[in-house]
Specification:
4 copies of one chain form a homotetramer. With about 210 residues, chain A is of the alpha/beta class. Chain A has one domain (about 1-200): 3-Layer(aba) Sandwich (Aminopeptidase), CATH 3.40.630. Chain A is about 30% helix and about 20% strand. Chain A is built from 6 helices and 9 strands, in the order βαββαββββαβαβαα. Chain A has helices spanning about 20-25, 45-60, 115-125, 140-155, 170-175, 185-200, and strands spanning about 1-10, 30, 35-40, 60-70, 75-80, 80, 110, 130-135, 160-165. Chain A has a 7-stranded mixed sheet, sandwiched between helices. Chain A has a two-stranded antiparallel ribbon with strand order 6-7. In chain A, helix 2 crosses helix 4 (about 140-155). The longest helix of chain A is centred in the C-terminal third of the chain and has 17 residues, at about 185-200. The N and C termini of chain A lie far apart (about 35 Å). Chains in contact: A-B, A-D, B-C, C-D. The interface of C and D includes residues 98, 109, 110 and 117 of C. Chains A, B, C, D: Keywords: Cytoplasm, Hydrolase, Protease, Thiol protease. Chains A, B, C, D: It is an enzyme of class 3 (hydrolase). Chains A, B, C, D: GO terms for molecular function: pyroglutamyl-peptidase activity.
């Protein structure tokens, strides 16, 4: 089995992106599966094009995109991506779309096809905080997740895919007040568990991990 | 013009629900439109059935559902509802669905057809904090918003509809630590602005109000 | 009985200070006591000098200083002021003391002589969130509180005095993300309760309102 | 040089206390100084008695007490301890003092004699978030810090002492929502830096690290 894992480059004035920092530290083989790691630019459209090419090239069985969610407290496995981009800050090439549809012929939203509840449960078993998130925002993270699931829906039916958000690293919050962070080793462990769980799980478990709002 | 506004009854151990507390204080006429107010039970399925009946009966031009988002800091106008229910607590009749599709023949998600950016902008002009939210959760609030937009899509094509979340009232946080709240008068003002804006706005403005995650 | 209530002028880039906005709206007579209201500059030293003069002039029985605690969720009645100034931003005349003792012949700290537990309890009875705080910071708020209690200790033995922090107003957080606020009417009610309680209470009640850290 | 470092045992329903978990992992020699580690019960009075005995026995040059501050985001070096105990929960032997003076003949407060600004600065240089805190609460942490500084003032004039609060470990927040944590290795590194800094620094640096409230 082959797993493609992507991480974004730094954006929004940050010097590092914990997503790719963690992705590049992953083992090359996890639970018997080959792990391909690729850095993707935090740029609308271009990020999806690069992902598409990489999928064509590598023909993975699973694609997991990883991004930074500065301000979140735990590993958050995204449930759904929506067909809209609404940027609060420019991307790394100066684009700032407002309320733009990502793909005109796409669904309003796509649900992750990763076993999200199993992943959350297994990360927590490793004593690392994790939860399901019901919004990946409206920036490039939601954009790539939507793009991935759109591509799967239209072109790569047999691939399973989804998105995981990671907190800031401690070094990123040294100059920010009251902002949570997570050690890089814990992020790497959590992503490793996510990959292992995806490789080994066909049907997700049914446990409650919803939010009232 | 006729506007139907719903608010949920109290849930999760609370004695009041700021949503209906505010809804019932709304004027009967706003911006020339008749305002119909109805309390809806915080119950999966039943809430949608009651809403459907009320729409059939009242034939409104606009439907705005309002719910409590305990822990949020500002008025949050929801952008999207997703086709899933995942309850972290029981509803008021003991239901606790996990990862259940709301309507098998519905879209993965529906976008609000209210002028959400205009509403947020106009509430802020009244000096009350407000923002667009990209998740209504996976509990009865998302459920009723999804149900409303599904009904509009399938049966009531000409109605515009959406959902607004309101913070706790101050009285609800007296026994909670570090939890934000909003005065009932401010919530009523904000909802009044939302109704007025919807009545008077055909095309939403394009201003950035997205989130990176 | 006469109660002197002070509120600071705006600082840190804010257009209003909720402290004086609330103070100036107080009734002139509360629980039979005369209420004298005075605005004080957010300036180290000068604020204490003006307070001293005002006390000499008015000969109040009680002095309550009020200040803005932007980011706090509730009314916070301060327990203690410490003999140090450590400014993170300049005051309104450009002073930015670092680790400076306020009065060389003062105690390390002074405790409020207001009935702080009774005040918190009574504000909460009005359905407005309140708690005891164990730090007034190290800026001008702690400075004036320390100055007041130093003056009481050295010159005005029979006066009772203390400090109350109030949250931002809603209008102040319209452009801030995820920041709590409190309606001006609720702040005025809470301060009125604080004054009434102080006038009517000789011995504070003993109820737990501590913090583990 | 000899440094005595204490950490509390678990309290408040927690299975571990990150304070002693980190303290027991410290090297036995840091910056040439001998490091003595001792676990102290989270109990009013008794904790101070044990500390007193240990100081008599070990005759350290420096004493650093360490405690858990669940909910804080970073390493917090305490500036001051106040002469009062006000417990919001019982200690580990069922005591729950309300507004009790710790030592009748003690000052209202004592300031840390550690180089707190240097410690914070050096921890941040290691890319670990840290700040000065102006309240150690009113529970056993403030109690032991006050007790330590009282003992130094009355009996052990040449010892330097103070208190450092540490966040929850990740494993402690797996079942808590939106609560920050810090990896044990980062806490150990930060405490090591604190000890090294104290050993090597006679006069603290003057940099701003105050709070407006």
């Amino acid at each position: 089995m082959k797993v493609l894992v992507t991480g974004f480059d730094p954006f929004g004035g940050e010097k590092v992106n914990p997503a790719f920092e963690a992705v590049k530290r992953l083992e090359d083989k996890i639970a018997g599966a080959q792990v391909i790691k690729v850095e993707i630019p935090t740029v609308f459209r271009k990020s999806i094009e690069i992902l598409d090419k990489k999928i064509e090239e590598e023909k993975p069985d699973v694609v997991i995109c990883v991004g930074q969610a500065g301000g979140r407290f735990d590993m958050t496995v995204e449930r759904v991506a929506i067909n809209i981009s609404d940027a609060s800050i420019e991307d790394n090439e100066g684009n700032k779309p407002i309320d733009e549809t990502i793909f005109e012929d796409g669904e309003n939203a796509y649900f992750s096809s990763l076993p999200i509840k199993s992943i959350v449960s297994n990360i927590r078993n490793e004593k690392i905080p994790a939860s399901v998130s019901n919004t990946a925002g409206t920036y490039v993270c939601n954009h790539i997740m939507y793009g991935l699931l759109y591509l799967i829906d239209k072109k790569y039916k047999n691939i399973r895919g989804g998105f995981i958000h990671v907190p800031y690293l401690p070094e990123q919050v040294v100059d920010k007040r009251s902002t949570p962070s997570m050690n890089i080793n814990d992020i790497v462990t959590a992503l490793t568990v996510a990959i292992k769980t995806t490789v080994e799980t066909q049907n997700d478990i049914k446990i409650s991990d919803g939010k009232t709002h």
